[in-house]
Design brief:
Blueprint lengths: L47 H6 L3 H16 L5 H14 L5
């Protein structure tokens, strides 16, 4: 089983989301990772993801409560989980 070849899925032009960021400033009560805390390849890219969640900060907080243990905990290392996530995104032509 491999990556299928052929025309792009019809939803592909919509990739990247539909909600614009609330502002250039993240929600003030949500702590963002500093560049020093990010892997080198992610430093300086900005944080549109959090700004889009600014439309509903409570949703971001609930999502983060679910996501953080998923990424950081478990028998599989966070590094391997990130590598798998990036490969799946690549196979699906996802920018994130």
């Amino acid at each position: 089983m491999g990556h299928r070849q052929g025309p792009s899925p019809p939803w592909l032009p919509l990739a990247g989301g539909r909600l614009p960021p609330m502002s250039d400033q993240p929600a003030p009560h949500i702590r963002l990772a500093t560049d020093d805390e990010l892997p080198e390849g992610l430093r300086g890219r900005g944080d549109d993801f959090t700004r889009v969640f600014g439309h509903n900060a409570a949703l971001f907080e609930r999502w983060n409560e679910w996501y953080r243990p998923l990424i950081r905990d478990g028998a599989v290392s966070a590094r391997l989980k990130e590598m798998v996530r990036l490969r799946v995104a690549q196979l699906n032509a996802c920018d994130f």
